[in-house]
Amino acid sequence: MTDFEKLIGALVGAQVDFLVVGGLAATVHGSARLTQDVDVVYARSDDNIARLVAALEPCRPYLRGAPPGLPFDWSTATVRRGLNFTLTTTVGDIDVLGEIVGGGFYEALVEHTVVVDLFGHACKCLDLPTLIATKRAAGRPRDLEAVAELEALHEESE
Amino acid sequence: MMPDRFEPDPVIEAYKKDIDRTLLRQNLRRTVAERLANLVAMQRLAEEACRSGKGMVREP
């Protein structure tokens, strides 16, 4: 079971520049769907990558769904080499994304965020129209129901 | 960059017909903290249901 509070607390505590996307952002906007992980977009600066690595290091991140025993090293070098990571940790699952389809990098997305209180921390969360636009752009069949719900939320909140 | 209104997509519109808007209206009346607390409660319930399911034995 993912401990949303611990994961968000770890990122905030290490002063990582991140914004919340995905199912947790949908919950913030009123979605009734159950999400099992935390999805965040992080800034790709060297300093921020170092903070991100330090924040999650105590939770021993490992590639979700990968066979055990791979030489995966959660380090700044690994994050710099890669971009998007789907991770499992001792406190649950987290996707740390350098870029999302239809939205781009942190710097482009941050203009489309709202600040909300998540478990006692002020966090940036993707706004509803942008969340819909990015999910539409991703075009994954499994997201269709989620997009429909988000659009209904958008209509209801107008 | 991001539109406030979306061009209707017939596939998404089809899915929209099955959305329970009463649940959404209820959620929109809640605070963010209440929505998060509800998510955590749903997560616990799903976990518990999963655990119970695993221990279930079919009667012969």
List keywords for this structure.
heterodimer, A: about 160 residues, alpha+beta, Beta Polymerase, domain 2, 7-stranded mixed sheet, about 40% helix, B: about 60 residues, mainly alpha, flat
List the helices and strands and how they pair.
The complex is a heterodimer of chains A (158) and B (60).
Chain A: H1 4-13, E1 18-21, H2 22-28, E2 37-42, H3 46-56, E3 62-63, H4 76-81, E4 85-89, E5 92-97, E6 99-100, E7 104-105, H5 106-109, E8 113-118, E9 121-126, H6 128-138, H7 144-156
Parallel strand pairs in A: 1-9, 2-5
Antiparallel strand pairs in A: 1-2, 3-4, 4-5, 6-7, 8-9
Chain B: H1 10-16, H2 21-29, H3 32-54
Can you walk me through this structure?
The complex is a heterodimer of chains A (158) and B (60). Chain A has 158 residues and is α+β, with helices and mostly antiparallel strands. Chain A has a single domain, classed as Beta Polymerase, domain 2. In chain A, 39% of the residues lie in helices and 25% in strands. Chain A is built from seven helices and nine strands. In chain A, the strands form two sheets. A seven-stranded mixed sheet of chain A has the order 3-4-5-2-1-9-8. A two-stranded antiparallel sheet of chain A has the order 6-7. In chain A, a hairpin with a 3-residue loop joins strand 6 and strand 7. The N and C termini of chain A lie far apart (34 Å). Chain B has 60 residues and is mainly α. Chain B has a domain of 35 residues. Helices cover 65% and strands 0% of the residues of chain B. Chain B contains three helices and no strands. The longest helix of chain B has 23 residues. Chain B is flat. Classes of the chains: A alpha+beta (158), B mainly alpha (60). Chains A and B meet through helix 2, strand 8, helix 6 and helix 7 of A and helix 1, helix 2 and helix 3 of B.
